[in-house]
């Protein structure tokens, strides 16, 4: 017990150092700032993907499907655009510089290093492939680099100085011209360097080196546990973990899932092997990456207004496995205070499900529940009432483990909110 407390204290100490770091805090606050976009996209994702055939037929027949699917396309599918602006803005502001100008230059820079190509009508276009979650890590790197270069150039006073009497908006715009030119040259150099390699772009380079440690993994239980841990760790580092893991392991996992689906459809006994894609959703990733559904429920009991509101907004999407609003709203990225449960809870759920399945308490998963099926319902579809009941136990377990970690964070936030309110009353 003492060792655990000592480890937790060391982790919190390291976390304090990270929080004081301008770059780390800018990433954390920048990700939190895009929460409205993510929550809006998540809500309409639920509306669009509700798994009722009659409802889906209605959307298609009335033409509403094209409208309900649009919010997700301009929010989560292009989240890197919002992130690169937000982080650059926050970091520049922390150095007392014009954050808006830094954010605009960051968007431009991100688009410079993003591959373009010809569309069917021969016009130039940018694929959304790297504008969404796959480009998130590059977006963070570009935002930090742009903001830092922008601040450095201004600190050295290498900018166009305007005479007195010029409106502040015009003065700030001209001050950003020289930094913009310098940053463009840097981004062109980055694009040119990677274009001359086998990776062709910095996006592909980052994506490939993240994938490499996973390429040797197979479909075994140990491999599955490694993938579960990797999914959370990658998300902690700002890389979309599920996307990376699925892109590498999909070729191995899909045949296993199809084998179980075929056996179920033909009324045969299910093969008693792992169906990682189903297990990740049903067990390890209940409520989304990190099995954060318990954290969402814990937020409903928060004292801090910020977390109580976030809990109300994220608990329903979490029931459908959509927890990006929670991950970026908390945020979980680079949040060492919640790293232990973020990695440990899904691993524990995976281990318990492995044991329960191996001894015959739980049946093998059928692999037929579609993505986005609500918790408990997905368990009933994929394994019957036993799996559904086990999911309820996993939700309780997630809540019990996350709560003490979250409680400390909530108390700190509540003290800050109280102090801010008291200062406001004194000032008034």
TrEMBL record:
Annotated GO biological process: carbohydrate derivative transport; phosphoenolpyruvate-dependent sugar phosphotransferase system
Main location class: membrane
Coiled coil: none
Membrane topology reported for the UniProt record: Multi-pass membrane protein
GO molecular function: protein-N(PI)-phosphohistidine-sugar phosphotransferase activity
A Pfam family the protein falls into: PTS_EIIC
Cited InterPro entries: PTS_EIIC, PTS_EIIC_3, PTS_IIC_cello, PTS_Sugar-EIIC/EIIB
Transmembrane segments: 30-50, 70-92, 99-117, 129-153, 174-199, 205-226, 233-254, 274-300, 338-363, 383-405
Ranges for domain PTS EIIC type-3: 7-405
A GO-annotated cellular component: plasma membrane
Role according to the record: The phosphoenolpyruvate-dependent sugar phosphotransferase system (PTS), a major carbohydrate active -transport system, catalyzes the phosphorylation of incoming sugar substrates concomitant with their translocation across the cell membrane.
Protein name: Permease IIC component
Organism field: Fontibacillus solani
């Amino acid at each position: 017990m003492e060792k655990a407390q000592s480890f937790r204290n060391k982790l919190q100490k390291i976390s304090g150092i990270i929080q004081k770091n301008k770059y780390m805090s800018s990433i954390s606050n920048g990700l939190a700032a895009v929460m409205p976009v993510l929550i809006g996209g998540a809500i309409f994702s639920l509306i669009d993907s509700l798994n009722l055939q009659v409802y889906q037929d209605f959307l298609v027949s009335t033409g509403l499907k094209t409208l309900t699917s649009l919010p997700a396309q301009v929010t989560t599918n292009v989240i890197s655009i919002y992130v690169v602006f937000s982080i650059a803005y926050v970091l520049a502001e922390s150095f007392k510089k014009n954050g808006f100008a830094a954010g605009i230059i960051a968007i431009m820079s991100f688009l410079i290093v993003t591959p373009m190509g010809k569309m069917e009508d021969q016009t130039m276009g940018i694929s959304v492939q790297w504008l969404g979650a796959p480009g998130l890590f590059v977006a963070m790197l570009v935002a930090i680099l742009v903001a830092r270069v922008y601040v450095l150039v201004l600190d050295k006073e290498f900018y166009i100085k305007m005479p007195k009497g010029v409106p502040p908006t015009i003065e700030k715009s001209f001050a950003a011209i020289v930094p913009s030119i310098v940053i463009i040259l840097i981004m062109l150099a980055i694009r040119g360097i990677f274009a001359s390699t086998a990776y062709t772009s910095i996006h592909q380079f980052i994506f490939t080196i993240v994938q490499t440690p996973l390429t040797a993994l197979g479909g075994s239980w140990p491999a599955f546990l490694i993938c579960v841990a990797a999914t959370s760790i990658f998300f902690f580092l700002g890389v979309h973990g599920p996307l990376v893991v699925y892109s590498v392991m999909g070729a191995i996992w899909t045949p296993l899932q199809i084998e179980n689906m075929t056996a179920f459809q033909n009324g045969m006994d299910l093969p008693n092997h792992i169906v990682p894609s189903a297990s990740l959703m049903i067990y390890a990733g209940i409520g989304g990456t990190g099995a954060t559904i318990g954290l969402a429920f814990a937020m409903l009991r928060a004292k801090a207004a910020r977390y109580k509101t976030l809990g109300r907004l994220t608990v329903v999407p979490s029931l459908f496995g959509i927890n990006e609003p929670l991950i970026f709203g908390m945020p979980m990225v680079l949040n060492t205070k919640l790293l232990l449960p973020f990695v440990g809870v899904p691993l524990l759920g995976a281990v318990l499900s492995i044991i329960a399945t191996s001894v015959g308490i739980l049946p093998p998963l059928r692999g037929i529940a579609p993505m986005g099926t609500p918790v408990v319902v997905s368990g009933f579809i994929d394994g019957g009432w036993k799996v559904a009941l086990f999911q309820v136990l996993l939700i309780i377990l997630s809540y019990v483990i996350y709560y003490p970690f979250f409680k400390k964070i909530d108390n700190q936030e509540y003290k800050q909110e109280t102090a801010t309110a008291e200062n406001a009353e004194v000032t008034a």
